[in-house]
């Protein structure tokens, strides 16, 4: 039997998230950009060259093809050992980390 927490859910990483929260459903890796498909119908892109501006060297589309979506709000790229949060897509380059 599943109990409700007033439209919240405890995710596998221990966070409590609202069912109305914007989440990443899918990520497409293109030659020069990443495009996130969100559960609210938006598709938002960021340029791959932002990684270099964040101080991450040697990033290419090929290295970003392997990725894991974590709870719909973070993307882990194992080949470069970096995590990008949904806020980078929704708020831009200078988004604060949560």
Structural description of this entry:
The chain has 98 residues and is α+β, with helices and mostly antiparallel strands. It has one domain: Uncharacterised protein PF10387, DUF2442 (NE0471 N-terminal domain-like, 2-Layer Sandwich), CATH 3.30.2020. It is built from three helices and eight strands. The chain has helices at 50-53, 61-64, 86-91, and strands spanning 8-10, 16-18, 24-29, 33-38, 43-47, 68-70, 74-77, 82-85. The strands form three sheets. A three-stranded antiparallel beta sheet has the order 3-4-5. It has a three-stranded antiparallel beta sheet with strand order 6-7-8. The longest helix is centred in the C-terminal third of the chain and has 6 residues, at 86-91. It is globular. The N and C termini lie far apart (32 Å). The model is unreliable at 1-12 (pLDDT under 50).
Query: Structural class, from helix and strand content?
Result: alpha+beta
Question: Biggest β-sheet: count, sense, barrel?
Answer: 3 strands, antiparallel
SSE order in H/E notation?
EEEEEHHEEEH
Helix content: 10-25%
How much of the sequence lies in strands comes to 25-35%
* Name of the CATH homologous superfamily: Uncharacterised protein PF10387, DUF2442
Report Rg. 14 Å
Here the CATH topology equals: NE0471 N-terminal domain-like
What is the total tally of β strands?
A: 8
**What CATH architecture do you see?**
2-Layer Sandwich
Task: Give the count of structural domains.
Answer: 1
Please, what is the average pLDDT? 84
Low-confidence stretches: 1-12
Widest beta sheet: strand line-up = 3-4-5
Question: What is the general shape?
Answer: globular
Taking the alpha carbons of the first and last residues, their distance comes to 32 Å
Number of helices: 3
